UniProtKB/TrEMBL annotation:
UniProt-recorded name of the protein: 4-hydroxy-4-methyl-2-oxoglutarate aldolase
Gene name tied to this protein: rraA
Keywords: Lyase, Metal-binding
Quaternary context: Homotrimer.
Gene3D superfamilies for this protein: Ribonuclease E inhibitor RraA/RraA-like (3.50.30.40)
Organism: Arthrobacter gallicola
Cofactor(s) this protein cannot do without: a divalent metal cation
Amino acid sequence: METSTADLYDELGEALASVSLQFQDLGGQTRFTGTVRTIRCLEDNGLVKSVLNSPGNGAVLVVDGAGSLNTALMGDMIAEAAVANGWAGVVINGPIRDRAAVAKLPLGVKALGSNPRKSAKESAGEVDVPVEFGGVTFRPGARLWADEDGILVER
Ligand SMILES: O=C([O-])CC(=O)C(=O)O
């Protein structure tokens, strides 16, 4: 991605929503863009695992974990699968784990932080529904841009 989110915002303005939550950049790729896919879940990453093990076609997976910091929603194995399956990145409203290994992968990863405790694997939750956090609605199919400054999404 060549253009910064700041330049993009100056160009397109209110056509874009800007995420106000302050995410950490935890992947080896800090600038990424792609079409939004979504998951809503709570302390259960079964759906995150199965979706990131399916073809990404350059998309960005937005995971709304309700901001719970209690369990990690992605680790290095799932992140490696995301790379192998052609995902551009993941934005997680929750923590990850294995951050040292994840930092080396060619994947965009924005998350709230890290927690070594694993999630449940029941696959409870929903896939490709609109999700909302940081003052922004993420709709499946919308374009998303992320870099060191933050995250922009088409309204
Ligand atoms: O299994 C999990 O919860 C996630 C994990 O540790 C990994 O992806 O390596």
